[in-house]
Design brief:
single chain, about 425 residues, alpha+beta, Nucleotidyltransferase, domain 5, 4 domains, 13 helices, about 35% helix
């Protein structure tokens, strides 16, 4: 049974006597707390009030008011208008939004109107006006991976959505996240997902931050060959078993000296899924509210959101801003990032971050790629050459680098359409 309030248990005179005894050191703090049956923090609040008010002192708590809920009519109307926009998003079945995001509403108000308002105030208004949904019970999953160093493990994933109801195509969001700091190392939107898109993300991450110890994607066919599942891919052969075929993604990481491990379930990748949900939710809402139609505009919004996530927001698990946590780990030597080392015979990062293939040189010292012939100088016929193909060296032009017996024998520029690159 709950204990009666202080003013119902003791008179003003009794409480005053206890304070006087404490101040004159006749009793200690523990005795005073026991006699009043209150917590330490409240004791010192009452003691301060007693010293300041003396004859006007009372132990009856001040009457509660709703002054903290009073806001101006202009701000009230702004909140109501933003909540109506939220409801319109939820009611639109073409948009991947199913619940209210009051933090997002607060951020929009601050950004658009330069007015500070708290999330609880917005929630109170949402409840008053019928723009409120109780939160569903959260599912709790055990952590599959625990890291102690930045660069120990990079969580990598992609997501396919219609980010704006005003666009006609869905876009792929590709991200890479440092597991320890939760810092988003890479994030970009593309119209098509391909091996090259993910190789480009590896290149961007490693050249900027260094080589991590491990990469941790899911089991998408771009990342992993699985027997019987990937029959429709060019990699498929009935004689090869799971992981016996090295995907382009896997070969690039091997050349970088990075281990590749796979998530066996969505729950195992929970830490990258949470930033995804944060980005997805805010990206969809912002694009919908601003009527975004072009890829460049969606990318601009994404860039701003990634900056907010990395440098402004306190992560709910680490209780730190990701950028600060990353920087401190590096300064303290708690990092497994290391500079990229290009192993001989290769001398350029172009030979690392590239698509790989091989061809047999014909009697005319030529090879054929998608029926497009290239001359191979200095290589005897019927010998195999290793190809490293680097797309986008120039606009819609790829560089084809040919290697034979650890020697670069030729480097040629070819149009993407001639090679029929699926980028």
């Amino acid at each position: 049974m709950a204990q009666p309030q202080l003013h119902k248990r003791l008179s003003k005179e009794q409480a005053t006597l206890i304070f006087e005894q404490y101040l004159s050191r006749e009793i200690g703090l523990d005795s005073a707390l026991d006699n009043l049956s209150i917590k330490r923090a409240r004791f010192f609040r009452l003691l301060k009030r007693y010293r300041e008010q003396l004859d006007d002192f009372t132990i009856i708590p001040p009457e509660k008011t709703n002054q903290h809920r009073r806001i101006g009519e202009k701000l009230e109307n702004i909140i109501l208008a933003e909540l109506k926009k939220e409801k319109a998003l939820i009611d639109n079945k073409d948009i991947a939004v199913s619940n209210y995001n009051y933090s997002s509403v607060r951020d929009d108000i601050v950004k658009k109107y330069q007015v500070n308002v708290s999330v609880p105030t917005i929630i109170n208004r949402a409840q008053d006006y019928g723009f409120y949904q109780p939160r569903p019970a959260k599912k709790i999953y055990d952590r599959e991976v625990i890291t102690n160093f930045t660069g120990e493990l990079i969580q990598h994933d992609s997501s396919h959505h219609l980010w704006s109801p005003f666009m006609t195509v869905k876009l792929y969001l590709i991200t890479s996240l440092d597991d320890y700091s939760r810092f988003l190392l890479y994030a970009d939107l593309l119209e098509a997902e391909s091996s090259w898109a993910h190789i480009s993300s590896i290149e961007s991450t490693i050249l900027k931050y260094g080589c991590p110890l491990k990469y941790y994607p899911d089991q998408h066919s771009i990342f992993r060959y699985v027997k019987d599942r990937d029959k429709v891919t060019p990699w498929y052969t009935a004689r090869k078993f799971t992981d016996e075929v090295a995907t382009q993604f896997k070969q690039v990481l091997k050349d970088c000296g990075v281990e590749l491990i796979y998530a066996l379930s969505p729950q195992a990748k929970g830490k990258v899924e949470r930033p995804y949900r944060w980005l997805q939710d805010r990206l969809v809402r912002t694009c919908a509210k601003e009527g975004v139609k072009e890829l460049k505009d969606v990318r601009s919004i994404l860039k701003d959101l990634v900056y907010q996530y990395n440098y402004k927001w306190v992560h709910s698990t680490t209780k730190e801003i990701p950028a600060i946590r990353l920087e401190r780990a590096i300064q303290e030597g708690k990092t497994l990032f290391r500079p990229l080392t290009i192993k001989p015979p290769y001398q350029s990062s172009k030979d690392i971050f590239a698509l790989r293939d091989s061809r047999i040189v014909n009697p005319y010292r030529k090879i054929s790629i998608q029926n497009f012939e290239l001359t191979v100088p200095g290589v005897p016929p019927r010998n195999s050459v290793d190809l490293r193909i680097v797309p986008h060296v120039k606009k819609d032009v790829a560089e084809v680098r040919m290697w034979f017996k650890d020697q670069l024998v030729s480097s040629q520029l070819v149009r993407h359409e001639d090679l029929r690159l699926n980028l």
